[in-house]
Amino acid sequence: MSGGVDSTFVAWKVKELGLRPLAVHLDNCWDSELAVHNIEKVLKKLDIDLYTHVLDWEEFKDLQIAFLKASTPEIEIPTDHAIIAVLYKAAEREGVRYVLRGANVATECILPSAWSQGHWDFKYIKYIHKKYGTKKLKSYPHITFLKRIYYKTIKRIIEFNILNYLDYNKKEAMKIISEKLGWENYGGKHYESIYTRFYQGYILPVKFGFDKRKAHLSTLICSGQISRDDALEIIKKDPYPSEELKLQDKEYVIKKLGLSPEEFTNIMKMPAKKFCDYPSYSNSWWYSFIWNLYKKIKNIP
Q1: For the chain, what are the domain ranges?
Q2: Can you name the residues that pair with 193 across neighbouring β-strands?
Q3: Which long-range contacts link 186-191 to residues 24+ away (Cβ below 8 Å)?
Q4: What is the mean pLDDT of the chain?
Q5: Contact, 161 vs 13, CB < 8 A?
Q6: What is the helix (H) or strand (E) element at residue 23, kind and residue range?
Q7: 233-292 pLDDT, tens per residue?
């Protein structure tokens, strides 16, 4: 439960279906005030219990800086991986077999792999932290390759993207959760996080030349939720709602990470690298063999 559109709509839908969900939230210390307000208000109205896992800030900050220094576009992997780990650990602890997420093909299925990959890959995360980090990862939630197999085969935990089984329309979803739950719009996809907003609105386009809005809008075009002409008009605008907010976020992020403006500038000037430039499970022959064998046994396409 992030406070964003997709997870909020999932919460509303599962309650409408008569299920008894437990909401799980990862607090990586970057939540915007509006995101926190949305989560509290929505879950209170829906009468859903909330489990929040708060990351060790000093440890997580070190990991985030390590990824910035690694100079790959997967800067949000530390958060994304921790979310997955916390979800599965919560499911195991509560004896729940189903993990419901807001991921869906209607609004976010298009994304070049060069822009973001390795969400499950703890070997990739561990190597980057070992190379560029300074602290030990003592409490960081993570899932190794073998743990992933354990969750899926022994514990039989199933990740179910419920929005893929609905006629999911983002504009209609926003209208429903605004009217019924008092949800407030935060101005952009995944912008409920200050760090994600800065990452997608500044770091990616400035350093790597990637504008994630192209991927998001392309998906909406393919699902018939927006016209190509309208999408092109949106792309003409800056990813940030305002120049003032961009400068404010930049100052806030640099200060919160404990970097000097000069250090951050030097990081932004470092040559861009790719996921394949670092060791990972995905780049190991044995990983491909075992994972393909597992999918064949489970009849997973």
Answers
A1: 5-297
A2: 31
A3: 186/3, 186/4, 186/32, 186/34, 186/35, 186/38, 187/241, 188/239, 188/241, 189/4, 189/108, 189/213, 189/216, 190/2, 190/4, 191/32
A4: 92
A5: no
A6: strand 22-27
A7: 999 999 888 899 999 999 999 999 999 999 999 999 999 999 999 999 887 777 777 767
